[in-house]
Amino acid sequence: MALKQTIAYNYLKATNLSFEKLGLREVSLTSASRFKEYPNAPKIKLFLGDYPKTKSFFEILESRRSERDYKKIPISLKELNWLCYAVQGITATVGSYLLRTAPSAGALYPIETYLGVNFSTDLKPGIYHLEIKTFSLELLKEGYFGKELTDLALGQSFFATASVVFIWSAVLRRTLSKYGSRGLRYIFMDCAHICQNLLLACEALGFKACPVGAFLDENFNEFLGLDGEEESVIYLATVGK
Ligand SMILES: Cc1cc2nc3c(=O)[nH]c(=O)nc-3n(C[C@H](O)[C@H](O)[C@H](O)COP(=O)(O)O)c2cc1C
Fold first, then answer.
1. Are 182 and 192 in contact (CB under 8 A)?
2. Which atom of ligand 1 is nearest to the CA of 65?
3. What is the pLDDT of residue 51?
4. Could you give the domains of the chain?
5. Which of 63, 64, 66, 188 for mutating ligand 1's site (highest number of atoms within 8 Å of CB)?
6. Are 118 and 178 in contact (CB under 8 A)?
7. Inter-residue long-range contacts of 104-108, CB under 8 Å, 24+ positions, other chains counted
8. pLDDT per residue over 212-237, tens digit each?
9. Which of 54, 58, 101, 221 is 20 to 30 A distant from 228 in Cα terms?
């Protein structure tokens, strides 16, 4: 089969930038709210700062590996603070823009972070949403969901033994309303930056982590109550010890 017949090739072609196409739009999309909040969810405030001393940046780069052998070790709230800070911590405010630890095309920040906390010394097990403006975790549903997360990740059993699972979704409209379908490239790039921050932070803090792209998209969306159109799960990472 020729590559030209694939959706991937045709997507790349259709979203190439050229001088002729600059400013042209296939459809006009209104934007979406830049921040997501669950107003009725119990909130746990996180903090920014108070960073631990770690090995050097280049030692961290040298030793990072994807690791999946976890021993159900509880993670503390302090450690979760640092991981959430690495993922989407606010590092500067410019007008109404809250700039973060990871870059984002147009500073539009289309990625939402959810946490499946399996084992923690301070938090109830459950599914949480990282709310950016007040930098808090919002408890969406309580309980140990390691088994469900494993099933959603096509039976990858380390989801059940990880201390915490990071789940990233994309609010497509935030980026597509500015960049059209080319924006989907940027959304994946944004998410990869966020995930790499997490992986390096885990290496710095002595956690094992693994990025995961294999999961049942529609079932995962359903599990989180996402509609799969405005917002969809696009990437995962497990963290454990
Ligand atoms: C986009 C992406 C998707 C991945 N998906 C999975 C996955 O579904 N399951 C898994 O066990 N590892 C997954 N990995 C981890 C890779 O297997 C791993 O990065 C690769 O073997 C290189 O090893 P290293 O990360 O230790 O350098 C994924 C990595 C990336 C970047």
1. no
2. 26
3. 87
4. 54-240 (3.40.109.10)
5. 66
6. no
7. 104/190, 104/193, 105/175, 105/179, 105/183, 105/186, 105/187, 105/189, 105/190, 106/175, 106/178, 106/179, 106/186, 108/34, 108/174, 108/175, 108/178
8. 999 999 999 999 999 999 999 999 99
9. 101
